Structures are given as structure tokens and as C-alpha cells.
Amino acid sequence: xxxxxxxxxxxxxxxxxxxxxxxxxxxxxxxxxxxxxxxxxxxxxxxxxxxxxxxxxxxxxxxxxxxxxxxxxxxxxxxxxxxxxxxxxxxxxxxxxxxxxxxxxxxxxxxxxxxxxxxxxxxxxxxxxxxxxxxxxxxxxxxxxxxxxxxxxxxxxxxxxxxxxxxxxxxxxxxxxxxxxxxxxxxxxxxxxxxxxxxxxxxxxxxxxxxxxxxxxxxxxxxxxxxxxxxxxxxxxxxxxxxxxxxxxxxxxxxxxxxxxxxxxxxxxxxxxxxxxxxxxxxx
Length: 284
Prior knowledge:
- The protein is α/β, with parallel strands linked by helices.
- Helices cover about 45% and strands about 15% of the residues.
- The protein has 12 helices and 8 strands.
- The chain has helices at about 20-30, 40-50, 55-65, 75-80, 85-95, 135-140, 170-175, 195-205, 210-215, 220-235, 255-275, 275-284; strands at about 5-10, 35-40, 110-120, 125-130, 150, 155-160, 175-180, 240.
- Strands 1, 2, 3, 4, 5, 6, 7 and 8 form an 8-stranded mixed β-sheet that branches.
- Strand 1 (about 5-10), helix 1 (about 20-30) and strand 2 (about 35-40) form a beta-alpha-beta unit.
- Helix 5 (about 85-95) crosses helix 6 (about 135-140).
- The chain is globular, with a radius of gyration of 18 Å.
């Protein structure tokens, strides 16, 4: 594979992904493109809209769609038996009410991938965006235990963030040497180890995949490894690491609309503030 490939690397973060959506809207406005792109969890969904240059859906998904009371909370639980009902979001709300359509991605010229955790294989794999459908996007945001396992194409799939919270390692494996990484957590964030009861619960919920509980138990170590890799690349002048410049009231599964709008706007303004760094990286 040829070198000097630029890549866009997107973390997930649930509702905190409004930050990512704002930063991607800035990229669309400035007509910035990459040879490769990687998305995990909600980062995968925002990636689809960035690739289609769809600022309207970048905003609507991150501010209204994902926070819809039919998707998260008591209404979601009463309807689906889970506190998040992404099936309603991806199979009904987005295509029917927002006219979300990813069929144009079949002609996408970017080497773009989303990460999915395969329960049968016990690992995260990366799938070309050109072949992805709404069920796979639903799976990409389906967290273990609180989300639904998606049976699709002979696979049982979940959120790839179980192992790859920030898909920087895949970008490096694919030969990219300049990376714009967008994350949704502040620079001083430290992921805590998973609590033993949660790990034990995973063993009971997913008996067909003993690996998932092992992966979850070391999730904090994988995250630290990914952050360290990003910082090393940044120090070498091979990456721009974009993250929220101030705290937000938005959490993974909660946030008022005005806070989501504020976080979206922060993503846009943070990208603008680092415009020179981003453009310099891509010109190397």
C-alpha cells in the first residue's frame, strides 16, 4: 500500500458525538477530504453523513435523532425492554422522518470503514462503508448489555468500541501516516477499569462468546494504548488530535437539546481554531 495516506479517525461517545458532528461539518464547509476514514460507534454514523457531505443530517442525527425520547429513556424501555432503542432510530425515525439514506455511499471513493464486534469471532473487524446497511450501523452503536445484538449476514454484531474505542490502530495498520483524530472526551479523561459485576454479567449474557468479557475487562488498558499512540503520532507531527476544549453537560446517554447544540457548535469552533494545524498536516 502506498504511503503518505491521510486518514480521518472518529471515536464514538453516544450523545457526546455531537462534538464530532460539529467538527465534521467544519470539514465539509472547507471541502477537506481524506484517502482513508474510520468510524466507531456513533462516529461510524457521523462518518456516513460526512462522506455524503450531508450537514443537515450531521446536525439532526446528533442533536435531535439520537436524543429522541423514543430512543433513550423510559419510552424506549417500555417499547423495547432496553434503555436504548436504536432499532426504532435506525429502522424508522431516521429513514422515515429524516429521510436518512446511505445508498449514495455505494459509490464512495474513500477507503472508509466502520468497526463492528463479531461475537462469533470474539474480535472487532472493519467493514467497507460502501457495503454497509442500516442494520450494521445500528449494530455499530449497540453497546453490550444495554444494546441489542444484531443478527445480520450470518454474524452476531455489536459496537466495535468494545475493543477499539478510537480506531487509530487500524488506520496505522492500513498504512496511513497522517491522521486527523476526533474524540469526544477531554484531554485529561482517564477510563476506569470495568467493574467486576459488569464483567461477570457479560459472561452470563454472552455465553457464546467468552472473549467479550475478557475484552471488556481490559478496555481501559486498550483505551490508554490508543491515546498513547495518538500522542506519539502527534509528537512526531503525524497527527492532529481534536477534542473538546471545554467541558459539557452532555453524557453518553443524556443531554438537553440546548447542550447538544452547544456541543455541536463547540466541535465546529474547535476545528476552526485549529484550522492552520489541520491544513498543515494535510499538505505534508
